[in-house]
Write a structure and sequence with these properties.
The structure holds two protein chains of two kinds. By secondary structure, chain A is an alpha/beta fold. Chain A has helices at residues 52-59, 81-90, 106-116, 122-135, 151-163, 181-196, 208-214, 232-237, 242-252; strands spanning 12-23, 26-37, 41-45, 67-72, 75-76, 91-94, 169-173, 200-204, 217-222, 225-230. In chain A, helix 3 (106-116) crosses helix 4 and helix 3 packs parallel to helix 5 (151-163). Chain B has a domain at 109-352: MetI-like fold (Orthogonal Bundle). Chain B is built from 16 helices and two strands. The chains are: A alpha/beta, B mainly alpha.
Chain lengths: 254, 430
């Protein structure tokens, strides 16, 4: 995969300025400034409790921020419910525990939001869903229930479910952390394919191989702050801060 | 390291799958394992058999020798002449009163009977998803049809009520789209009131239009009254319970506060006091001159009572759902009503089925409490008019056995249905 294939435009997809968040009195995100270009693929890593999941959950307002501003696709996130719903329908999200709807079949999981939020006719939504299920390579499971699938398959369904809304941005919150080693690869392959198609992606993960291969930027967070960000080669080969060096030595050293 | 045993191992021939060993079967083996596995179990088994046999031997002749054709308890005793036997004649003579109450006109018994048969048709498509969906149209019509059949009067009365509800719904949908939920709700209520007001002139002008002989609410009684109260209150209290449960989870402090206070107050009060309130006190809350039907008052009270319990059961179901389900629904852009209706409630209600059925069965049996406020339901009939009649004073077993049988059949049916439904809704493993 060459750099030329994975174009990044100058257009800004997400803009975060001086964003702060507290859980009670605990200052969980501190003065976050981040601009994401359209088509950019960002990997966010850091020790647990560093606020990386909270950061991407703020982007689709699953968590509320208290100070600063987040602008997604030109829409400012505020307490206005209409803006929040608009952003959420443009931003897809995959969770660590997949969060498929267990009472619906795979196909129904994928068609639910297009039918109810986008008001797309059922037949058309099902065609779109089958298209994306083929893309994640499990069209034959369409009539099964999530409980009958393996973890890797479930996560790929979750990705397809998000894609059915035709999002312009995808957020991944540790998508492979709950998976067996054998299944991690199938999910990462799906994500790599997505990146090649030019999707704007923010991904919280500890899969450093994925970061090297796909990311244009790696962000390292600690204690609620962005400590270091750089291109993957620079980040892994010449980390600047001591905290980053320690972290990298811990996760790459074994 | 020469004394280390060689632990290297490579499998070259895969082990083919084979059939499981044949289970030892047979009656004797089963009995030895389950009834006589040790000496304590053996003693308990023998004791149980002894007591079961004793009960059957003692009660069978009493039931079997029963008398069916006499007209009073005294005649029963004369026929039996000291031998053991039940006096089933009371059932043969008074079955109609126990089923319909003692004032319901006998020539109109077919009306509640038909309503009961149609009730089965009405709930069938609600209970069984596989039946054709257009049967639900009849389910929607049924409440009005049943009201007309049981209470009688002109068919215009339920038609007007149905039309007012349709008008209210249309007004709500229209105004909600234009101006929002609150004004939509208000205009819906106004539309209902308006159609009801106009319709009252029509029904007053044409009281004989396709009319059945009217029967007053105070003439309802017997098991019919229990069934009316049970079905109406259960079907009203489930939606009310859902609303209360969601309200209790709300972020809006006033709505949450109202729901919490309501639920905790109702749950802290015995049903019987609420029924006394319905009977005596409730009329003080309405403007003088309004004469709200006693059955309606009792229905309101029992519905509020069981709605509070069902709300708590559903709250348990809501709390049992992982947060991820809410977040996944949010992240897909579903709004609150969609997320609740499509994602959260189907799962929460599924978890709540055993609890809801528990409340429903309890509620159905609690309808016998209305006998205390001098309504003549099945128990009220037995305690009142039948036991105090000169012919049947002193007869208990036969009457209460009949009541037990009726309630048991209904409640056991409900419980079996709920177990079947739980199996149907299980999607986690097949």
């Amino acid at each position: 995969m060459s750099e030329a294939q994975m174009k990044v435009s100058d257009e800004i997809a997400i803009s975060i300025e001086h964003m702060n968040k507290w859980y009670g009195t605990f200052h969980v995100l501190r003065d976050i400034n981040l601009d994401v270009q359209r088509g950019e693929r960002i990997v966010i890593c850091g020790p647990s409790g560093s606020g990386k999941s909270t950061l991407i959950r703020c982007i689709n307002a699953l968590e509320e921020h208290q100070q600063g501003s987040i602008t997604v696709d030109g829409t400012l996130l505020s307490s206005d419910v209409k803006n929040i719903d608009k952003v959420r329908s443009e931003v897809g999200m995959c969770f660590q525990h997949f969060n498929l709807f267990p009472h619906l079949t795979i196909l129904e999981n994928c068609t639910l939001a297009p039918i109810w939020v986008r008001k797309i006719p059922k037949k058309e939504a099902e065609e779109t869903a089958m298209h994306f299920l083929e893309k994640v390579k499990i069209p034959e499971q369409a009539d099964k229930y999530p409980g009958q699938l393996s973890g890797g398959q479930q996560q790929r369904v979750a990705i397809a479910r998000s894609l059915c809304m035709k999002p312009r941005i995808m957020l991944f919150d540790e998508p492979t952390s709950a998976l067996d080693p054998e299944m991690i690869k199938e999910v990462l392959d799906t994500m790599i394919e997505l990146a090649e198609d030019g999707m704007t992606m923010l991904c919280v993960t500890h899969e450093m191989g994925f970061a090297r291969q796909v990311a244009n930027r790696v962000i390292f967070m600690d204690a609620g702050q962005i400590v270091e960000q750089n291109k993957p080669e620079e980040f892994f080969n010449k980390p600047q801060s001591d905290r980053t060096k320690l972290f990298l030595s811990q996760i790459l050293g074994h | 390291m020469s004394d280390t045993p060689n632990i290297g191992f490579v499998r070259h021939e895969p082990i083919p799958p084979s059939a499981p060993p044949i289970q030892q079967a047979g009656m004797v083996k089963w009995m030895r394992e389950n009834l006589f596995s040790n000496w304590i179990n053996s003693i308990l088994t023998i004791l149980s058999i002894y007591f079961v046999a004793k009960i059957i031997l003692a009660s069978t002749p009493w039931m079997w020798n029963g008398v069916w054709t006499t007209s009073s308890l005294r005649e029963c005793r004369e026929v039996l002449q000291g031998t053991i036997g039940a006096c089933w004649s009371v059932l043969a003579e008074r079955w109609n009163q126990m089923l319909f109450g003692f004032k319901y006109p006998a020539e109109a018994y077919w009306r509640p009977t038909l309503a009961f048969v149609l009730l089965l048709v009405c709930i069938a498509p609600i209970l069984f998803q596989k039946l054709p969906r257009n049967m639900l149209i009849f389910s929607a019509i049924y409440p009005f049809l049943a009201f007309w059949l049981i209470w009688g009067g002109t068919v215009l009365t339920p038609v007007v009520v149905a039309l007012s509800l349709i008008a209210g719904y249309l007004a709500f949908v229209k105004m909600e789209r234009l101006t929002g939920f609150a004004t939509g709700l208000l205009s819906g209520v106004v539309a209902v009131a308006l159609v009801l007001y106009l319709g009252s002139f029509v029904t007053a002008a044409l009281p004989e239009f396709i009319a059945l002989e009217p029967v007053a609410s105070r003439d309802m009684g017997g098991f019919m009254l229990n069934l009316i109260l049970g079905t109406v209150c259960v079907s009203l209290s489930i939606p009310l319970g859902i609303v209360l449960a969601l309200g209790r989870q709300s972020n809006m402090p006033i709505i949450k506060g109202i729901c919490v206070v309501f639920i905790e107050f109702i749950r802290g009060v015995p049903l019987i006091t609420l029924l006394f309130v319905a009977n005596v006190v409730l009329s003080y809350f309405f403007p003088p001159g309004t004469n709200l039907d006693l059955i309606l008052r009792v229905i309101i009270m029992i519905t509020l009572f069981s709605a509070a319990y069902i709300a708590e059961v559903i709250r348990g179901g809501l709390a049992a759902l992982p947060r991820g389900q809410y977040e996944a629904a949010d992240s897909l852009g579903l709004d609150y009503p969609q997320a609740m209706r499509l994602i959260i409630l189907p799962q929460a209600l599924k978890i709540s089925i055993p609890g809801i059925v528990n409340v429903a069965v309890g509620l159905f049996k609690d309808t016998t409490l209305v006998s205390v406020i001098s309504m003549f339901d099945l128990v009220g009939m037995i305690r009142g008019p039948i036991s105090s009649s000169t012919a049947w004073t002193g007869i208990y077993w036969e009457l209460y056995l009949f009541a037990i049988l009726l309630f048991f059949v209904v409640c056991y049916g409900i419980s079996q249905y709920s177990q079947w439904l739980e199996r149907q809704l299980r999607t986690d493993h097949h």
